[in-house]
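Please complete every field before forwarding. Incomplete forms are returned to the sender.

SECTION A: IDENTIFIERS
Entry label: holo-240
Bound molecule: S-adenosylmethionine
Molecule representation: SMILES string

SECTION B: INPUTS
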Amino acid sequence: MAKRWYQEHQRDPWRRQARNSGYRARSAFKLKQIQERHNIIRPGDSVLDIGCHPGGWTQVALEEVGGLGTVVGVDLRPTDPIDGASLLTGDVREDGMIARLSSENSDEGYNSVVSDISPSLTGRYDTDQAISLELSAMALDVAAKLLKPGGSFVTKAFQGTGIELLIEACKKRFSFVRRFSPTASRNASSEVYVVCKNKKPSSERLDSAIEYIQQGLIDAGVLVGDEEEDEESVVGFRRL
Ligand SMILES: C[S@@+](CC[C@H](N)C(=O)[O-])C[C@H]1O[C@@H](n2cnc3c(N)ncnc32)[C@H](O)[C@@H]1O
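SECTION C: PREDICTED COMPLEX
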């Protein structure tokens, strides 16, 4: 198993290309492909990169915004400095982080929020997919608070239960919503990116994407309601 992983790792053309191009992670090419197809970042933009470690997406965002733009990154893990970016360490779910991210941006809101956020994988697909869905919903809630009207948002998700609800929640906030699978994603991967453009004015927003998805999962019988549920038995949106 370890030998196969090592051989695949060595053969990975995106990893080689990332090394040759000076990117910190092969995932840089995923954002480049999203950008080529959907043009979510413009020169001069202010960009927030959620789940930025080790910094591949931040590097690409800096190239796209050019000298007049700004990029702020946040991750649970410390990210080595990148010239021109402001990098915070912390949990985007924590109270106070939204205010910190907001104060990093001198403008009235970000033009673009990009999120490649992903949990530490357990290897159990249902659990990983459910935690990832919750992180993506949380990133959507952060984007809804910090984006300017007209702004764009992209987040990673894994195919499976609840992804349609995530897309519905995105459609309530953005007038353009598409799924996109970059060729730089690993062949066997079930990851997909949800690309959203043109954030609607705040009057049309729903309160919380997390609650919207949670309710949808309860209605579908995937989760049980609060009154029946022992909180510790729920991981992400998954009832264990
Ligand atoms: C796939 S990596 C991101 C790679 C990055 N886009 C790049 O190109 O270098 C996903 C990141 O999400 C971060 N993450 C997961 N949960 C988080 C949370 N609650 N708050 C902030 N970052 C989180 C992880 O620490 C991890 O570094």
